[in-house]
Design a protein that fits this description.
Elements: E1 2-9, E2 14-24, E3 30-40, E4 43-48, H1 52-70
Antiparallel strand pairs: 1-2, 2-3, 3-4
Amino acid sequence: LTAIRKIEYSDNDNHYIVYTDDVIDEDGFLRTFAGIYHNENGKEVLLPVLKDEEWALIENLLAKTAKENED
């Protein structure tokens, strides 16, 4: 797995990670995944993103990053 972007969001104190398994899907897009990570007893633990609001946040930040990279 390859990390694409780590996002620290102060409004809810969560840390998000967007990552890929480096596989191109049938539509020609890189498969990407997201999760919430935190440190538990010295180990990073990955949890699923369950709330629609969190998915919207991640998607908006990735769109913003993609747009900045185009400029």
